[in-house]
Amino acid sequence: MNQNRFINWSGQYQCVPTFVYHPSSTEEARQTVCQSSEMGTKIRVFGSGHSPSDIAMSNETLVSIDRLNLILNIDYEFKTVVTQAGVTLKELNQNLAKHGLALPNLGSISDQTIGGAMSTATHGTGLNYGILPTIIQEITLVTGLGEIVKISMDENPKLFNAAKCHLGSLGLVTELKLQVTKEFNLEVHEQPQTLETVLHKLPESLQSDHYRFWYLPHADMAWEWSATRRPYRKIPTIQNAFQHIQQWYHEKLIGYYTFEALLYLATYNQNLIPYINSWYVQQMFNEPKDSQGDSVSQFNFDCLFKQQVNEWSIPIEKTADAILQIRKMIQEKDYKIHLPIEVRFVVIQSKRSSQHSKNRRLFNTG
Ligand SMILES: Cc1cc2nc3c(=O)[nH]c(=O)nc-3n(C[C@H](O)[C@H](O)[C@H](O)COP(=O)(O)OP(=O)(O)OC[C@H]3O[C@@H](n4cnc5c(N)ncnc54)[C@H](O)[C@@H]3O)c2cc1C
Q: pLDDT confidence of 3, banded at 50, 70, 90?
């Protein structure tokens, strides 16, 4: 991003806004909104641009939340944190860890801003731990009319659920109060599996604290990931030079650079994709793996190179049906699919709000 050009993470979308503001407080954000309103320009908010769509782009007024970057309060006793919206999940994770706390669930990365993650229902996986916005206790928002509004179960309760996936349409979020948890470890087991077996034992697999799987087209197999929550303890990572080189060879040279180069090659000849996929699965996903560590290190992983993704939400009881239909469609239409289809399981209501509305359980593919 240069001074005027904003580009999303994947590099697919960019914009050159006429006006760019960087408020550092709720009051400055309010003034920004009022000023734009007087000029008659529309505002859009830019977090860290990780949305794979053009949703954070505008050629009119763009508000960057990069200066709303303070964590205002961490309360160990009540396990809450009050933070400005431009703090990244990574910064929040690090600061919570210093206080023996953690976010209860995370997605694949922590580079997003809190504001962005909480605007788009960002989620990890695990039916007992909802999408990230289910931990919101209170939101401070500047509306399009320049009013400062608090949203919580007690204040503006009708907006509270809408605020879990508002996509920036409610206004400019400046601060959030979140319910966090005591820090914890995850014990992770990963294994290759046939798709049929994965789908057959899904009800059992979903008893894990956190479970997801990837379907790997062309290689026609699945890779399961399940994690069990354990009390936090520091796990030293002692590696000798040989293990270090071995890891670099496997994860970086093969799993990243070679794979990326081959996919680049396949942009000239799509027929190579099934062979590349099969080779990749042989190299990376051929035997079970166990690991453990603090929650952030186990939830997050390296998403490797820039990529375009899309994501669909489907009722959980349709999981098998949907995946099998996708597999059939790939075969029948002879589609060449170069990246795996990830299937995660989430609830979209917090335990508290589910007292009012029954939990909706979803899986999503991405
Ligand atoms: C490599 C990668 C991995 C990902 N992994 C996951 C994952 O595991 N799970 C998942 O669910 N998603 C995932 N995502 C998607 C990502 O979490 C969302 O797109 C998230 O919104 C990005 O946050 P951001 O700060 O970049 O927001 P942006 O992309 O900048 O903005 C997203 C939306 O939020 C609005 N917004 C941002 N901040 C505010 C604010 N303060 N007030 C009002 N509106 C605001 C913007 O206007 C826009 O509509 C991933 C994306 C990438 C690129």
A: low
- CA separation for the pair 157, 297 (Å, rounded): 35
Band the pLDDT of 306: cuts 50, 70, 90.
Answer: confident
For the sheet with 184-193, list strands across it: 289-294, 184-193, 221-231, 210-216, 341-347, 361-365, 312-315
| 61 SS3 class | strand
* Half-sphere exposure in the Cβ direction for 337 (13 Å, CA): 22
Query: How many angstroms separate the alpha carbon of residue 355 from the centre of ligand 1?
Result: 28
Instruction: List the residue whose alpha carbon is closest to atom 34 of ligand 1.
Output: 116
Q: How far is the CA of 198 from the centre of ligand 1 (A)?
A: 30
How far, in Å, from the CA of 89 to the mean position of ligand 1? 11
> Residues near 325 by Cβ (< 8 Å), separated by ≥ 6?
none
**pLDDT tens column, 241-297:** 888 888 888 889 998 999 999 999 999 999 999 999 999 999 988 899 999 999 999
Q: Give the containing element (helix H, strand E) for 310.
A: none
φ and ψ at 169, to 5 degrees? -85, -10
Q: Which domains does the chain have, with CATH numbers?
A: 6-63 (3.30.43.10), 70-182 (3.30.465.10), 184-347 (no CATH)
Ligand 1 midpoint to CA 51 (Å) = 5
Residue nearest to atom 35 of ligand 1 (CA): 168
pLDDT, residue 57, reads: 94
Give the global pTM: 0.92
Best mutation site among 122, 170, 346 for ligand 1, i.e. most ligand atoms within 8 A of its Cβ? 122
Would you give the DSSP letter of residue 15? Answer: E
Please indicate whether residue 178, judged by its CB atom, sits closer than 6 Å to ligand 1: no
Name 191's bridge partners.
224
**Residue (of 335, 336, 344, 350) closest to 362 by Cα position:** 344
The pLDDT of residue 352 is above 90: no
